[in-house]
Structure formats: C-alpha cells, structure tokens
C-alpha cells in the first residue's frame, strides 16, 4: 500500500512505510526514459521480473566491481578488528567471556567509517545488530561444539551458527533499521532541497510515528 504526501514542498511516495522521493522531470520530453516512466513494483518477484524484462539480467551485477572494491577491504578490517578486540578484552579480563563478543562487536561497528547520513541516522541499527549477531554467534557455536564430536569440521558449525545468529539479530533490530532508513531518506530529501539546518526526529519519536 502506498500513498503520496507533500513534505517541505516535495512529493514523497510512502511504500512499505518508507518515504521515497518522487522526482519530477524539469525538462519535459527531454528527460531520459526511466525519468519519464517511474515504475512501481507490487513485490519482490514482480521487481525481479520487470527488471529482467526491461533492463536485462546483467543489471543485477552492474555495480559489482564498485561493490567489491568497497566491501572486501571493509569486511576484512571488520572481522580482523572484531577478533583482535575480543582477544584483548578476554586476555585483560575486562569483561566476561559471555559478553566479550557483544562488546567487541559494538566497538568494531562503531569504529567503522560512515558517511554523514549514517553518522546521524544509522547508529540506531548498525551497532545493536553487530552486538546481537556476535553474541548469538559465539553462544550458538559454543553450544554446537558441545554436541558435535571433536574431530568434526568447524566449517559446518560456523555456517549454522552464522545463519541462526543472523536471523536473531535481524528480527530484533529490523524495527530500528526501518527508523534508520526513514531518517536517511529524510536527510537526503532535506539536502536535496538545500535546507540549511538538517535535523531528523529522534529514534523514539520516529518509532511512535511508525506505530501510529
């Protein structure tokens, strides 16, 4: 379900509770085809079908080189930093072995470089996800280690633990992720309109608004 609403003289399309800006073509017929003909998808499968039909299958991997350049170093730094911080915390007995993954995951996430939008809006979701993910991962992996024979490969256990912890963290942080997305969209709209004072409502205010 979606509807449009005017906010600060800009038309926004609410789709799945997330406001998306509706860009109007200033040059009429001189605008590119995609600008003249915006597409609304009814669901995930409809999006896949229409993208393949109009843009081709290669469209899904068009930005792969740029994504790899950005993701591979960030992921390498993230996992390395997590294990180093966790070993430091456990080695110095700064926290218990049970909560060391949660603290290490939070510190690692907070240490990652982020853009202006994420600095203001993403903190409500990224750090809690990382904390819950690593806490669940280490807990599930330790539990599986007690069930499996000692000569059993740890690859399968890591795979299962990662899947379970990812689901747990996603379910618990998804409401805050929606708040983060709305905050980022609002900031982007305000910057596009060149609003001098960029201010986004607090997390709890956005949560109450979504609930209402």
TrEMBL record:
Solcar repeat copies, ranges: 3-88
Reactions this protein catalyses: glutathione(in) = glutathione(out)
Membrane topology of the entry: Multi-pass membrane protein
Main localization of the protein described in the UniProt heading: mitochondrion
InterPro entries: MCP_dom_sf (IPR023395), MCP_transmembrane (IPR018108), Mtm1-like (IPR045315)
Transport found in the keyword field: yes
Protein's UniProt keywords contain Metal-binding: yes
Compartment(s) where it occurs, according to its Swiss-Prot or TrEMBL record: Mitochondrion inner membrane
Keywords, ordered alphabetically: 2Fe-2S, Heme biosynthesis, Iron, Iron-sulfur, Membrane, Metal-binding, Mitochondrion, Mitochondrion inner membrane, Repeat, Transmembrane, Transmembrane helix, Transport
Pfam family, one: Mito_carr
Purpose: Mitochondrial transporter required for glutathione import into mitochondria. Glutathione, which plays key roles in oxidative metabolism, is produced exclusively in the cytosol and is imported in many organelles. Mitochondrial glutathione is required for the activity and stability of proteins containing iron-sulfur clusters, as well as erythropoiesis.
Family: Belongs to the mitochondrial carrier (TC 2.A.29) family.
The protein's name: Mitochondrial glutathione transporter SLC25A39
UniProt source species: Saguinus oedipus
